[in-house]
């Protein structure tokens, strides 16, 4: 029986894999980007609403001089990090790892928590959710689930269990609680409930750990079998799903390879291949454009749920809006994605955009074809957008992103660069 | 667009349907049984564990002289009501309605809450979850979801919204949060996590209402469409699911017809048809039995997940154990379902039991065939177990169930029988 205990074998693999210098460096980059994204989102309207729920407690609300309960800190910090869709992405996970894992880990940390163990827990969390997502298959997302939340809760729970020094058995029990609380539907994309999912998953991860700690009985092998998590939420056969989960053929940590994808622009990652293509086309007068045809590979526009945005905020999930910004010479900065009405010039561009999908694509891409009024056709394929693992942001660019978000960047960076020799408490004070 | 707003039409139907005297009477019966079941479960080991999480607050923990936060009260009271599997069932819902709805409603009530409105909210909650379950189809449960939790959270949210006087629009928003937190896997059956699901669903229903109240943006039509709740969690086509949800051909409230199913025995309702059959066969010496063959209609033993129970507690989910109790002349009382080792006599009976399934059955039943050592065959079909809507418990029997559970039964009953003229606060003090 034990030999088929998929959940335990998964946890054992995650916990025993040794850290290396590459992943420590990359985890620090993730930490910088997470704090930057959180500070950009700290005064978001949704954060202000959630602060109504925050009763006093020991855990810091990032960017605020305020402490709340561990559960509410996880909720609010998770929301904040993902509020502007400016936080990191992992393409194997097809979701936002840090916005779920790091709020869980920060909420569980105190002045005694080792910085090195924190980075290690984060690395394990990213590994766990990437492998879980691969195991469930892409169809999980396409059917309507929001991976950041459905899978995120389990990754955050495993990361939290490692941080707390839980043994394998109790970690498997905590996974049981996390799996049975897994939820999150993509139908809410384009509303505040998308970032709220990150917060809910982080909060529920904390609760899963609490249920394990107080000793509630639970099936500790909840991932396995016909009515287990992999089968119920996934689309692979049970056998295939379990094989993918336990595959050890990749040597590197997934936080390093393929690695986290960091954003230069606060909009949905589904638009990034299109941004790459549009930027290479450059500015175009609207009067010169006959039509703009955008082709996505294999439903890679699934997260771009809005075709006719009424506001810049909605435009965050609209390739029509984002491409129109670029062709009209506007910047892809926060100012372009505010809850203000889309202006007439952009509307004129947007009317010319049509979307297509190539379901036979081998590799992910977005192709933009502009037919001009003088009969020319410009065709550019976006394949390696800036920030993606194949065309990564430099650490100095991440540091600039942080410096633009907070006046405290120097102290935060000094602490992060030395975090493996500090406690997490020394960082929490600064953020 | 509005005309196709399935979620809003569903809420409108629920909120506008008038109460009648039958359903008021039946809701009171449900309330008596809920309080009885909760008191039987109040000292369960799991409750003691959960009490570790209870920080002080305004909401009463049933059966304890202790008050905690609204959220934790919902969690603990939900667990408690379902701890012994002694609480009511609704067969269209295929779950335990009161253990989710009533902890939510009690947690939201105070000394100003109208008793009549409370009964009305409860009635609406049961209606909502029965219709949602029919809409998702039986396959939802069979795939591995735990309806008490996955659907229960939405029923409890709608009931809570009505109790609080939320308008239709905000109720639809609250449903959005509930649907996106829906979870609960049957893989945990046979552990404390089964009753914990009732508590988690009640707690998350409270949180869904809070998110709606603080004004978080959300898709308020989350049940509808290809990536909506009915499609993502259900097995019917979207069109069929939506039609079932909005069907108004049944005039009676579902709390009255088919009605709640109350239990005389603290064990899984999946065993009740078998109990009916075994009791009609009566006591049998183990030495006279060659074999015991039990045939269930259409996977109706899905919840009876344990075939070789080690303890009486596990035996709660084992037809093998329960039938052996009856044939050996033991009572189906709490004492038979304790976490104590199964004795040798029962083991000898259990070894003779085999299970079968008839997948072509038209009506639900359990058939027991006993082949005796002298070559006879006794065959009895259980079709209308005591407590089921076709063979209901008398109100006096429910009152006895309560009187066996608490010394305060007289005062509780007097208040419930007059609850439409009282506030819920007057009842909460007593329970």
Features:
homodimer; 431 residues; alpha+beta; 2-methylcitrate dehydratase PrpD; 60s Ribosomal Protein L30, Chain: A; 2 domains; four-stranded mixed sheet; two-stranded antiparallel sheet; 21 helices; 49% helix
Structure in words:
- Two copies of one chain form a homodimer.
- Chain A has 431 residues and is α+β, with helices and mostly antiparallel strands.
- The first copy, chain A, folds into two domains: 6-264 and 391-428, 2-methylcitrate dehydratase PrpD; 269-382, 2-methylcitrate dehydratase PrpD (60s Ribosomal Protein L30, Chain: A), CATH 3.30.1330.
- Helix content of chain A is 49%, strand content 9%.
- In chain A, the strands form two sheets. In chain A, strands 4-3-5-6 form a four-stranded mixed β-sheet. Chain A has a two-stranded antiparallel sheet with strand order 1-2.
- In chain A, helix 2 (21-41) packs across helix 6 (115-136) and helix 9 crosses helix 11.
- The longest helix of chain A has 22 residues, at 115-136.
- The mean pLDDT of chain A is 95.
- The A-B interface holds A 46, 49-50, 52-53, 143-146, 149, 176-177, 179-188, 190-193, 196-197, 200, 210-211, 214-219, 222, 225-229, 231-232 and B 46, 49-50, 52-53, 143-146, 149, 176-177, 179-188, 190-193, 196-197, 200, 210-211, 214-219, 222, 225-229, 231-232.
């Amino acid at each position: 029986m034990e030999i088929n205990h998929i959940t335990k074998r998964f946890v054992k693999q995650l916990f025993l894999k040794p850290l290396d210098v590459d992943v420590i460096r990359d985890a620090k980059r993730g930490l910088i980007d997470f704090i930057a994204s959180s500070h950009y989102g700290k005064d978001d309207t949704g954060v202000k609403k959630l602060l109504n729920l925050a009763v006093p407690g020991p855990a810091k609300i990032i960017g605020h001089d305020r402490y709340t309960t561990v559960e509410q800190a996880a909720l609010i910090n998770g929301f904040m990090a993902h509020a502007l869709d400016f936080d990191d992405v992992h393409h194997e996970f097809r979701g936002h790892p840090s916005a779920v894992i790091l709020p869980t880990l920060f909420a569980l940390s105190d002045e005694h928590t080792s910085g090195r163990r924190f980075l290690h827990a984060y690395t394990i969390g990213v590994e766990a959710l990437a492998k879980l997502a691969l195991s469930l298959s892409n169809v999980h997302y396409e059917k309507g689930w929001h991976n950041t939340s459905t899978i995120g809760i389990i990754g955050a729970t495993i990361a939290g269990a490692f941080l707390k020094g839980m043994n394998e058995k109790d970690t498997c029990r905590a996974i049981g609680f996390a799996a049975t609380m897994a939820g999150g539907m993509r139908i809410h994309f384009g509303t505040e409930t998308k970032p709220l999912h990150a917060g809910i998953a982080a909060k529920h991860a904390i609760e899963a750990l609490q249920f394990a700690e107080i000793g509630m009985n639970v099936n500790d092998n909840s991932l396995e079998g016909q009515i287990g998590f992999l089968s119920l939420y996934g689309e692979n056969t049970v056998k295939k799903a379990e094989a993918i989960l336990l595959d050890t053929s990749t040597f590197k940590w997934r936080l390093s390879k393929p690695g986290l994808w960091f954003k230069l622009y606060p909009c949905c990652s589904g638009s990034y291949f299109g941004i790459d293509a549009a930027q290479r086309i450059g500015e175009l007068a609207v009067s010169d454009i006959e039509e703009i045809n955008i082709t996505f590979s294999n439903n890679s526009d699934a997260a771009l749920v809005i075709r006719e945005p009424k506001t810049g905020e909605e435009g965050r999930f609209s390739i029509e809006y984002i491409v129109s910004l670029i062709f009209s010479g506007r910047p892809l900065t926060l100012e372009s994605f505010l809850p203000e009405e889309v202006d007439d010039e952009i509307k004129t561009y947007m009317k010319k955009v049509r979307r297509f999908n190539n379901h036979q694509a081998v590799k992910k891409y977005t192709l933009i074809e502009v037919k001009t009024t003088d009969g020319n056709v410009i065709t550019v394929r976006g394949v390696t957008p800036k920030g993606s693992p194949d065309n990564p942001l430099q650490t100095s660019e991440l540091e600039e992103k942080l410096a633009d978000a907070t006046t405290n960047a120097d102290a935060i960076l000094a602490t992060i660069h030395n975090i493996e020799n500090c406690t997490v408490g020394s960082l929490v004070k600064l953020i």
